[in-house]
Amino acid sequence: MQCSKCRRDAVIYQRYSGLHLCEQHFNRDLEAKAKRAIREHRWIASGDTVAVALSGGKDSSAVLYFLHRLLHERRDVRLMAITVDEGIGGYRDPARARAIAERIGVPWVTASFREEYGVTLDEIVARKGTGLSCSYCGVLRRALLNRVAREEGVTKFAYGFTLDDEAQSVLMNVLRGDPYRLTRPVREVAGLVPRIKPFMYIPEREVALYAFFHVEGFDLAGCPYAADALRGDVRGILDAYTYRHPATKYSLVNLGEALRNPEQPPEGGLRVCERCGEPCGEVCRACQVLDEVRRGA
Ligand code: SF4
Question: In what side-by-side order are the strands of the sheet with 195-196?
Answer without folding.
Answer: 108-112, 78-85, 49-53, 156-158, 195-196
